[in-house]
């Protein structure tokens, strides 16, 4: 059973730390190691039999003290029955889906998911004989009409990568559960600071901890948080495949956890300020940000989230690819790169992939990750580069 919820700020500071010992360090040390040894064969055999349980020290690949502390901290924050760490967010997604699929199975995936989720479904899963059907992320409870006898899972994201539509999480998760199909939500954008999706009826929350949770662009890690019904099967898949997190990364993620709430508050305020400023620029056709009333699913965001992240997108009025490249290249504070959620601002032109529908917006989509820099500096940087998108600048 999940623990009763502690106030979020308290949990961020208190969880994932060693038990009371006089003269202890504030933080756990970086824990490295493969083999663990036992004083008796009986103790070894007991550990081997319980090796799939978070908390059992058996062999490095199954986790160590620091891994288990972080898993327990995340279980408390997500209100999950179990959390398993993975080596990346992509590993969290693929290993969760691998737990549920069978040859000949049907998988429902929201059309706006992260590109690598789509690549995994269309690549590895297709080769394993799994049929992926993409659905309109705004489908809501009508997802029930797409569920077949062979449907093994419903995978979605809130908001969508790059285009930021916010699905109706309880409606989709509720319809899936009513049909006996597990729902999987990529909750990377929100973090447990802004949405605890298991409480909304989702069965499994996956996230890239490489983003906001570790928060400093120096760590790759993923997380799978789930209800009692799925926690053990998922953990077994992760262990059987042999995925594991490194000691240094666990140390960095635990450190990032301590400041997550503060950083998310900054990203929320700065992201909204930057999005509003961009919306007022003549080169901007539209801003895609869940906190803005014209964002598809804004009402779901208002109902189910307690805040926003600092990642959003802008649709610029139609211009050439060369103009977009010149604009992006001219920015000083915004690095050009994938990923997000670190302390630094980033920019990336995005081409949405769609198969259930089409991306109808006329204009160029560019994604911004707002970091911890002064918003005045970011605005000045953008103001200097935006004229490169004007028709006359070609
Ligand atoms: C929404 C989303 N989920 C998952 C991932 C994958 O995470 P990782 O890079 O840790 O594998 C990403 C990465 O960009 C992402 O944007």
UniProtKB/TrEMBL annotation:
Residues in the signal sequence: none
Protein keywords: Lyase, Pyridoxal phosphate
Pfam family, one: Cys_Met_Meta_PP
Catalytic reaction annotation: L,L-cystathionine + H2O = L-homocysteine + pyruvate + NH4(+)
Superkingdom, natural source: Bacteria
GO molecular function, one term: cysteine-S-conjugate beta-lyase activity
Database matches in InterPro entries: Cys/Met-Metab_PyrdxlP-dep_enz, Cys_b_lyase_bac, PyrdxlP-dep_Trfase, PyrdxlP-dep_Trfase_major, PyrdxlP-dep_Trfase_small
SUPFAM superfamilies, per database record: PLP-dependent transferases
Co-factor(s): pyridoxal 5'-phosphate
One GO process term, biological-process aspect: L-cysteine catabolic process to pyruvate
Residues bearing PTM N6-(pyridoxal phosphate)lysine: 211
Family according to the record: Belongs to the trans-sulfuration enzymes family.
Protein known as: Cystathionine beta-lyase
Organism of derivation: Marinovum algicola
